[in-house]
Amino acid sequence: MSSFQIFTPKEITSLRHAGKILAECLELMGSLVAPGITTKELDRAAEEFIRKHDGATPAFMGYHGYPATLCTSVNEQCVHGLPGDRVLEEGDIISTDCGVLYNDLFTDACRTYGVGNISKDAKHLLTVTEQALKDAVGVIKAGTKVGDISATVQGTVEGAGLSIVSALTGHGLGKTLHQFPDVPNYGEKGTGPKLPANTIIAVEPIVCTGKDGIKEADDNWTITTKDGSLSAHFEHTLLVLENGVEIIA
Ligand code: MF3
Ligand code: CO
């Protein structure tokens, strides 16, 4: 479909419920991230947390055959890191990307955390990527064009001397995990589709300290920076309102 999905008040109530579970799950991940824990342990904790809520299930599991609840992307891994036996070490950064499915509706969000003490460069990367998402949220309301979001993310990231990972984009979602429109992290203000009220989009800057460019790992899921530089990812599921925006997760 190449048109916006508009959600009913009832659907929005369900999305809010899913989003609350998802936001709490990501907070839990933040509290568990520490030297010594494995990415598989994080994944188990996330799955258990989500399933504890009646009717809620992990939204990524089974998606194109994806076998886990979380994507855990460490250091040079940008997105879709497969949870496994990797042990987190002091100084690593890890993004925990997760979705909750509830009443057939999808939410999707991500936070990147430092493991113990992290380098100045890593801190800068996390701060700027999170700020880029905040800045983008700040320009969204009914009537905003997708290019306004893209240009805002790009301005913050490049203004801070970092690079957009341009192959990876945000997206519409709700009825499915990915639907119209794509929300690129670079672009021109005033271009692209115009957001209506009561649609749902995921905005997700994926940023790296080196040069733009990706490659796929041998597991056929994990995507890393081509140059091995550090990458961070923050994502919100957002409800577009007449006069602003609501963070669903
Ligand atoms: N947040 C991820 C994205 O928007 C969702 C990954 S689904 C998975 O691409 F199945 F690939 F894990
Ligand atoms: Co997403």
Describe the structure.
There is one protein chain. Strand 5 and strand 6 form a beta hairpin. This protein has one domain (9-247): Creatinase/methionine aminopeptidase superfamily (Creatine Amidinohydrolase, Alpha-Beta Complex). The chain has helices at 9-32, 39-51, 120-138, 146-159; strands spanning 57-58, 70-74, 77-79, 93-98, 100-102, 105-106, 109-114, 163-164, 170-172, 179-183, 200-203, 206-208, 214-216, 223-225, 231-233, 236-241, 244-247. The chain is globular. The chain has 249 residues and is an alpha+beta fold. 28% of the residues lie in helices and 25% in strands. The structure holds 2-amino-4-trifluoromethylsulfanyl-butyric acid and cobalt (II) ion. 2-amino-4-trifluoromethylsulfanyl-butyric acid binds next to loops.
Indicate the percent of residues in helices. Answer: 25-40%
Tally of contiguous helical segments: 4
Bound molecule kinds, no repeats? 2-amino-4-trifluoromethylsulfanyl-butyric acid, cobalt (II) ion
Number of domains: 1
Q: Using only CA atoms, what is the Rg?
A: 17 Å
Query: Which structural class fits the helix and strand makeup?
Result: alpha+beta
Q: Extract low-pLDDT stretches.
A: none
Provide the CATH architecture: Alpha-Beta Complex
What oligomeric state is this? single chain
Number of strands: 17
**CATH superfamily placement:** Creatinase/methionine aminopeptidase superfamily
Q: What overall form do the CA principal axes indicate?
A: globular
Reading the helices and strands in chain order gives HHEEEEEEEHHEEEEEEEEEE
Task: Report how far apart the termini are.
Answer: 24 Å
Share of residues in strands? 25-35%
Indicate the CATH topology. Answer: Creatine Amidinohydrolase
User: How would a crystallographer describe the biggest sheet?
Assistant: 5 strands, antiparallel
